[in-house]
Specification:
148 residues, mainly alpha, Four Helix Bundle (Hemerythrin (Met), subunit A), 0% strand
């Protein structure tokens, strides 16, 4: 086995973690800025922010799984490893960015209308689940590539 699969495993996790980390920081920054302007929203936004960051994190977990499988599955060709990497990374990056933008929008909406926080949170979760499906499809595709 060549060493290229190890490079693809590293790229798989490295690229997604970079984008997910920046997305999580964007969510946290927005929450902190909002609480700085409206301290009475601290309790409401703390839970929403933690939930949002946890949901954004899932894309990185999928990439980690693919990286582990590339690394520890015997006989993975460089072509399969690269294909699995792209299948996990591209949807993971876009899902992470999309989910973060949904959480940021929810935080800003709650700042504008705190009385609608419950409805906004519910909508945020539903919309993130829809965006998350793209990352799940990427993970399933990567698994199919690796084990075919």
């Amino acid at each position: 086995m060549t060493e290229l699969p190890f490079l693809y495993a590293a790229l798989s996790i490295g690229i997604v973690w970079l984008v997910v980390t920046l997305s999580e920081a964007w969510v946290a920054k927005t929450s902190i800025d909002t609480v700085g302007k409206n301290p009475e929203l601290n309790d409401e936004l703390k839970g929403l922010t933690i939930l949002g960051i946890a949901l954004v994190e899932s894309a990185a977990i999928y990439a980690l799984l693919v990286a582990i499988l590339i690394t520890f599955t015997d006989g993975v060709s460089a072509t399969k490893a690269m294909s699995a990497m792209f299948a996990a990374v591209l949807p993971g990056v876009l899902a992470g960015l999309g989910e973060a933008s949904i959480v940021v929008a929810a935080i800003k909406a709650i700042q504008r209308n705190p009385s609608a926080a419950s409805d906004i949170r519910g909508n945020m979760i539903i919309f993130i689940a829809l965006v998350e499906s793209a990352a799940i499809y990427g993970l399933v595709t990567a698994l199919l590539i690796l084990f075919k």
